[in-house]
Amino acid sequence: MNPILEQIYSTVIPSAPYIIAAYALIWVALLVYLLFIMRGTKKAQAQMALLEEELAAQEAKLQSAAADETSATPRQDGV
After folding, report:
1. pLDDT, tens digit, for every residue of 24-74?
2. At residue 31, what are phi and psi to the nearest 5 degrees?
3. Residue 41 burial by Cβ neighbours in a 10 Å radius (0-12, 13-18, 19+)
4. How far apart are CA 47 and CA 49, in angstroms?
5. In the 8-state DSSP scheme, what is residue 54?
6. Rounded to whole angstroms, how far apart are CA atoms 12 and 5?
């Protein structure tokens, strides 16, 4: 084997487990971070859906109250 390559491999190989562990740790941390982000996004979407339903119910209530109010008031044009 080439003596230069032998010297390079002798310095790299002993530190290989630490490099592999560092990369694995980074990937695990990234995966955990993404899972937290996804969980928060799902919570936010659920809250938005609840708010949209509540808003639609309030709008329907206001529209029915406005329709009742217009039908209950006498017409001003004399008919």
Report:
1. 999 999 999 999 999 999 999 999 999 999 999 999 999 998 888 877 666
2. -65, -45
3. exposed
4. 5
5. H
6. 10
- Report the Cα 18 to chain-centroid distance in Å: 33
In three-state secondary structure terms, 2 is coil
- What is the C-alpha separation between 69 and 42, in angstroms, rounded? 41
Place of tokens 């406005």: 66
Distance CA(16)–CA(35), nearest Å, equals 29
For residues 42 and 56, give the distance between their C-alpha atoms in angstroms, rounded to a whole number. Answer: 21
The CA-atom distances, in angstroms, between 30 and each of 8, 23, 40, 42, 44 are 31, 11, 15, 18, 21
CA–CA distance, 4 with 55 (Å, rounded to integer): 73
CA dist 51 → 29, 42, 46, 47 (Å): 33, 14, 9, 6
